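Structure, all four chains, one model.
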Amino acid sequence: MATIKDVAKLAGVSVATVSRVLNQGENVQPETERKVRSAIKALRYSPNLLGRNLRRRETRKILVLLNTISNQFYSRVVRGIEECAAEQEYSVMIGMTHGDPKLERNFLEMLKTKLMDGAVFLTSELDGAELAAQLQGIPVVQACEVQSTFPTPWVSIDNRRAACEATRYLVEKGHRQIGFFGAGDTYGSSRQREEGFRLTMEGAGLPIREEWVLDEGFGVGAGIRAAERLLEFGSLPDAVFCVSDTCAAGAIRCLAGEGVLVPRDISVMGFDNIRLSEVFLPSITTTWQPQYEIGYKAMEMLLRLIGGEEPSPNRLVLEHRIIERESVSPKN
Amino acid sequence: MATIKDVAKLAGVSVATVSRVLNQGENVQPETERKVRSAIKALRYSPNLLGRNLRRRETRKILVLLNTISNQFYSRVVRGIEECAAEQEYSVMIGMTHGDPKLERNFLEMLKTKLMDGAVFLTSELDGAELAAQLQGIPVVQACEVQSTFPTPWVSIDNRRAACEATRYLVEKGHRQIGFFGAGDTYGSSRQREEGFRLTMEGAGLPIREEWVLDEGFGVGAGIRAAERLLEFGSLPDAVFCVSDTCAAGAIRCLAGEGVLVPRDISVMGFDNIRLSEVFLPSITTTWQPQYEIGYKAMEMLLRLIGGEEPSPNRLVLEHRIIERESVSPKN
DNA sequence: ATCCGTTATGTAATCCGTTACATTACAGAT
DNA sequence: ATCTGTAATGTAACGGATTACATAACGGAT
């Protein structure tokens, strides 16, 4: 591979001149520039970005950390991040952790050692305190999934309130016996949605049957497992509030396999409003979150941080909205 | 941020010694090592990987290029890539192009300039010749989607044969009038599947009605649009062969919206066997491809390339298999 | 006491750019 | 002819690590 020296030699100029041509191009004679450019072409030269980044102390790359790309939800969030990043000439790289702390630490290492200028965390397996300790001084924003023990700017919806509203929606449709399919304590969003669920049920004077509160996770498989367990208990609730659309889809599919039809026999509500929820049969009643905007705003904050400012506000709660579809019907 | 010099100074040793402690640790007195380690901890030092990578001329990172993560199909392929990479201490970064050549060129730049040791291309928007010109000498493997004008090792299934078998399956179920929902000429996989479709139809002496051959793309939206157009012609085929499961799901949903039920009124066959195809209602009859293995094998090849060897074989055709589910029923 | 071979450590070159600073050339002013 | 300021270009320091090579220290053999 050719280096800048080779180019300089071939063009008969100094490396500084080559660099000037490569970058702003100020104060270079047209004739000189021509020579340099033709040398670049002849040698098929591309500057080694490691050298450049090392010197400039910036890479103009940002990392998006998430546990899996198999949930469509993230894809629009990432799109928002990317479009905002592109406007400032940043590139986005996605790192998947698969819920493996070791893999995640690996990515943290890249951040600590300046391989990326900053990161947006969509999920994390690590403890907030550990993240805080490891990443102090490094520009990081959390989006969707927020750990308060990791003090960074963040953007998210109000998960608890959204869950309250979703639960109330089910109650207003006449459902009394309502189950909750969550993802356990690990994820704040799930915890808060469960909180909202419990709060609203209590507020409505409705009992919560704990065997209908199941924590299998966000994915399709989680929905299937939760529904299986639900079927094991003799009686079914009127409705189930699921922590995600993927979970809801899994649940509906599993129930259908046993002849329990949604929404005829039981109503199921999702969360997120991913594409699947529109397309699924029955289409899934859910809570929309502004995925693209979450991503875009998070990236805006990150750019501020990278620029050395503290973004204000440094926490942003965006709107959500219930989307009525087919999977929830009035209790008759 | 502390540098190796700071550590060396604090520990009262030279930078070489610090580096030795950091790396293999050969020939360092236990006492010296202790001092160095405590200095590292005191300064919260992490080596700057830009410096290291520059010197070592390797980054141990590989790039996976794809156009979107919203199609689940890729997620298992990527998993295969990652697991193979992890065994050799490589990290995987995902770059999304969104079908935008400009974004893709951006990632090519990273490859050309040594920011990554190599890449697996799952899709590309660019012309094979341009890729070949830009990336000569850079370790690249293509997987799933292969451009023959870009001469790299690759791994894929035999798309044409798979499509032949899928079409024959439909024919054997008694379907005569069969449509094809493809993704146009841009993607080789779609082209080859269409080829297989046409070949088999001709072989069976069945006419192809060109208004039932629609090229809207791989995604859910594509399936919906294609189905809409199908509905615009008065008559429906007996069955439709879709280029992907997501496309099939979109089509089924759209048809259902107009009261056309799958498989009662029309059969729909997908391709890929992503999770969605099991979960969807009706579940989607499809052609399985070994997603994980494709990724794993592609990464094995890439590692060979990075090691300076030519992988042999340097093209790998893996098995596929029809999976029978609910969306195709015998024509009565 | 001398020499040799390890082992432990240090010095400095190197990777490849960018950029502060130095130098040269030249046009225009005096 | 001399001076000054600006434009064009070059030289070398620098970013932060790794590593080839040099050196020092020390134990053991002669």
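The longest strand of chain B covers residues 61-66.
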